[in-house]
Amino acid sequence: MTTASPTDTVPADGSTPAKGTATAKGTAPSRGDKALAVGAWEALFRAQVTIMRELTACFPTGEISFNEYDVLFNLSNQPDRRARIKDLTQHLLLTQPSISRLVDRLAAKGIVEKQSDPGDGRGIIVALTTIGADVFRSTAVRHADAISRRVGGTLDHDELMQLQALCTKLRQGPKIAETPDEDRVCLPGDAADVLDGPSDPGTATTTTEGR
Q1: What is the reported pLDDT for 195?
Q2: For 152, phi and psi rounded to 5 degrees?
Q3: What is the average per-residue pLDDT within 100-112?
Q4: Separation between Cα atoms, residue 198 and residue 203, nearest integer Å
Q5: Which candidate, 83, 93, 190, 207, places its Cα nearest to that of 142?
Q6: What sign results for the dihedral spanned by CA atoms 194, 199, 203, 206?
Q7: Of 128, 156, 169, 199, which one's alpha carbon is 20 to 30 angstroms from that of 89?
Q8: pTM to 2 decimal places
Q9: Reduced to 3 states, what is the DSSP secondary structure of residue 59?
Q10: 82 CB contacts (<8 Å, ≥6 apart)?
């Protein structure tokens, strides 16, 4: 996707145009802000794609895949290290059928256990086994090292703090469906219906060492 560079609408001194003022080229502020937002998003997305490809290529184990690790990471952060499959879809950019297939593969390895959901006759609860917890911890330590070398080796402490704060603010900001736009068209379903895991490099995976 090709879009206008954000530098086309930013003053020469690098400052952001104040709302209600025109840019040096006479562009209306709303148009400049739109181009700047698109340019910022493209920069963020391209950085994510680049780093995700590197992390996937250098994933530290052949015992589980990158996507399977993502399931284990999310289970490790749940109470009692267990969650319903339908709840996992809120944390993973995967469709529920894709998650079900990952869970089946992990269960076959003894890494997770599938249990009936007492509150839903058709629901399935996925629980991390003792073996699974060991696999997750050993993988998480090495995966965190790779992230630290790649991201921490590029940004200093203050930049990392700023990046974390900005990404958190962006994630918690108003959703597209909450912003007024008479021409807006939102596809039915969740983002999980569009993106399907790190193999589609729009998926971000977070890790913590042994969490």
Answers
A1: 47
A2: -70, -25
A3: 95
A4: 5
A5: 207
A6: positive
A7: 169
A8: 0.67
A9: coil
A10: 75, 115, 125, 126, 127, 128
